Amino acid sequence: MDVNLELYKIFYYVAKNLSFTKAAEELFVTQSSVSQSMAQLEKKLDIVLFHRTNRRVSLTHEGEMLFSHVSQAINIIKSGERILENTKVLEYGELKLGASDTICKYFLLPYFSQFHRIYPKIRINITNQPSIRTIESVRKGELDFGIINLPYDSVPNDLNVEVLSNFTEVLITNRCFFKGTEGITSIQQLMDYPLITLTKETSTRRYLDSYFQKHQLTLEPEFELESIDLIMELVQIGLGIGFVIDAAVAALKNEDVSIINLKEPLPTRSIAFISNKKLPLSIPAQEFLELLSTNKAD
């Protein structure tokens, strides 16, 4: 099919923004030329790509199918451009990664600091989001790589996965407010207390749900929060008992907060590096992975 590739490029920006106006602004062309180009592409493909109304633009089913392929192609080209730029000089470039705020704060911060000292002119672009979104962003080629928590329900086969470090999830309580918790030894006993966890969309929450289900229980937390730090704050003021990672407790300086040791310990978890098998890692990403691997878990 004889289709000018420039039409696919314009289609990508319209579909990404769901706006002819914004696409025109990003491409530095007129809205009229964008509209004409899309009309031309639809004519050549003999399909309708957009639903057009006075107020909004949306993709048709066929448009969504085409966008899923075109966006991958555009991101592959962008990845190639980044690699070419980075091979000129490693002093310049960009590191694009995704990770949750917990992973950033309690695992990645020292690596960011070290990498920045070695390559001060390389921009570190962090997309802060749950593991499920990071996985999807890496699959689409929007990020060079991601750092996620394992176990995860299912990591797609088109991603490389490399375990970097292990950690454990622990249960903490404030003894001043919940004196009875010192005697808790079983997960069944937790059901009598207000529990605090991360939100349902996180891999950590799914991991905890699975842990409770394994023991024929249903996790029904009193509070569902966006961050580990907020969970610790609520535990410290006595609003409940919270699940956090062991590294967070190590950094806590409140003597009233202690760990509840259960006879059904939570399984060890891992932090892993993921990348797209179809896309080569940029030079900065390779250097960052090398840095991470120097302290890799056995």
UniProtKB/TrEMBL annotation:
Keyword field contains RNA-binding: no
GO terms for MF: DNA binding
PROSITE patterns noted in UniProt: HTH_LYSR
Start and end residues of each HTH lysR-type domain: 3-60
Keywords: DNA-binding, Transcription, Transcription regulation
Keyword Transcription: yes
Pfam families: HTH_1, LysR_substrate
InterPro entries: LysR_HTH_N (IPR000847), LysR_subst-bd (IPR005119), WH-like_DNA-bd_sf (IPR036388), WH_DNA-bd_sf (IPR036390)
Domain of life, source organism: Bacteria
Family as reported in the entry's similarity comment: Belongs to the LysR transcriptional regulatory family.
Name the UniProt record assigns to this protein: DNA-binding transcriptional LysR family regulator
Protein's organism: Alkaliphilus hydrothermalis
